[in-house]
Amino acid sequence: MRPAASDSSAPTRRDLRARQQTAEAARRAERTRDVRTRDARTRDARTRSAAVATRVPLNQRPRQRGGLGVVHRGIARQVLSVGVLVAVFALVVSVSVPASVFGTPSANAATSGAPLVGSAADTQSFQVSAEAAADDTTRDAYGATSRAQFAAAAAAAAAKKAQASASRYSSTWNPGIGPVRWPYPVMPKLGPGFGAPATCSTCMSVHQGQDYLAHEGTPMYSIATGVVTKKQQDSYGWGNHLVITSTVNGQTVSFLYAHTQTGSIAVNVGDTVQVGQFIALTGSTGSVTAPHLHLELQLNGTKVNPHTWLQANVTG
Ligand SMILES: [Zn+2]
């Protein structure tokens, strides 16, 4: 039966060698103690204590304690060296690399002093017209996938645009389908009416007709079937105008259409014109401040309010 090494009372060759080494270390420590600086004495003290510890009989102390301590101190020195290297590397990086390399956009803006979002004074203004925005909305709303759908969407968009363009006209307008009809299929806004104060400084009397504020170039149509009795181009007064004489309910009724666009009158004196037939384009010839139709109506030779007469006689 082999006794355990720690229980052996007889020193082994290995024990003897260890004792010799520790004794030698102690003697070296004694020789160098007096010439060491005070800072080095702490380390010497550790060395001495280690040497003293080695004098304790081996069977009364843990084996290889000194060896493990040396290993631990070696690891500590290595860790310290690595730590120093890391610290130096961090220092070099911190002073040589721009902070923006590691920073987030906001941090970058804060450190550079150049804001990512410019101030109101620096930004350029870009205005989109309401019409353009409306067009985009319309296009997106349809989501056409075929040519037919695209055409339908385009037609719907065009109708919507036309409706918006006609917003200045009445939406409850019926031009009529009978023998007497309104001169416009879509009712324009009304201007000065019959009997209103004179609209020009040279006018000697009150307004003799009804003004319909249609756009320049808007087609106008014959109110009733009749014969063209006058067609004249003037640069003053009624401007380019025509008169169509009809018989309505047994009464002779003449209609004067004034301020028509130059060259747009599509009929000639003596022509028979059907109700609803195109006769001219709305213009601004003569004494006007804006394009419009000045309509006068004579009933058996007497001027009457054309608007109220139309309201009473247009059917359908
Ligand atoms: Zn007028």
Brief summary:
This protein has 3 domains: 11-90; 132-167, no CATH class; 189-313, Glucose Permease (Domain IIA) (Distorted Sandwich), CATH 2.70.70.10.
Describe this structure in words.
- With 316 residues, this protein is α+β, with helices and mostly antiparallel strands.
- The protein folds into 3 domains: 11-90; 132-167, no CATH class; 189-313, Glucose Permease (Domain IIA).
- The protein is built from 7 helices and 10 strands.
- The chain has helices at 13-32, 38-55, 65-96, 105-112, 130-142, 147-165, 306-313, and strands at 189-190, 210-213, 219-221, 226-232, 240-248, 251-260, 272-273, 278-281, 293-299, 302-304.
- Strands 1, 2, 4, 5, 6, 7, 9 and 10 form an 8-stranded antiparallel sheet that branches.
- A hairpin with a 2-residue loop joins β9 and β10 (302-304).
- α1 (13-32) runs antiparallel to α2 (38-55).
- The radius of gyration is 56 Å and the shape is rod-shaped.
- The termini are far apart.
- The model is unreliable at 1-8, 64-70, 103-123, 132-141 and 164-172 (pLDDT under 50).
Which molecules other than protein and nucleic acid are bound? zinc ion
Count of extended strands:
10
> Total number of helical segments?
7
Quickly count the domains.
3
CATH superfamily of the largest domain: Glucose Permease (Domain IIA)
CATH-defined topology of the largest domain: Glucose Permease (Domain IIA)
The unreliable regions are: 1-8, 64-70, 103-123, 132-141, 164-172
Instruction: Tell me the series of helices and strands, N- to C-terminal.
Output: HHHHHHEEEEEEEEEEH
Task: Estimate the global geometry from the Cα principal axes.
Answer: rod-shaped
Tell me the β content: 15-25%
